[in-house]
Specification:
Layout (H helix, E strand, L loop, with lengths): L1 H22 L11 E11 L4 E9 L5 E9 L1 H6 L12 E8 L6 E9 L4 E2 L9
Parallel strand pairs: 3-5
Antiparallel strand pairs: 1-2, 1-4, 2-3, 4-5, 5-6
């Protein structure tokens, strides 16, 4: 009986651990490719565990596609000098990211440049200072 309890607890620990690992996986992004788009900020979801910058991009045919650019949570963004108010709705920018492998309009945010030339690099929040 004790053997089954130990095996059962081990299975639960493995399941919980793998679920947490898959949640923080970046497997969905293609880090071999980059996409650069110009658009207008629709919304900045400055939240944990991951923030999303939603950008409306006007296509060649005049339709608009909302792209989502994922970054880390607010504490990492703050260390990178990125505040929610820096990228308020209506802000024009150019943004580069690693696109999703399945072709959906989303990417891992690499760098964004506002129309006034100010750059925002969310990965700078990982730098040791």
């Amino acid at each position: 009986m004790r053997k089954f309890v130990v095996i059962g607890l081990g299975a639960v620990a493995l399941a919980v651990g793998s679920a947490g690992w898959s949640h923080h996986s970046a497997f969905m992004f293609d880090f071999e490719k980059e996409v650069t788009l110009e658009g207008v900020v629709k919304e900045f979801q400055y939240t944990n565990p991951h923030s999303w910058l939603l950008v409306d991009v006007t296509n060649d045919d005049g339709t608009v596609t909302t792209w989502g650019f994922e970054a880390e949570g607010p504490s990492t963004l703050m260390r990178a000098g990125i505040r929610r108010s820096d990228l308020s709705p209506g802000t024009e920018l150019s943004i580069t990211g690693n696109p999703m492998k399945d072709g959906r309009p989303a990417a891992a945010w690499i760098i964004a440049t506002r129309a006034d030339g100010v750059e925002f690099n969310p990965r700078a929040g990982f730098a040791i200072q």
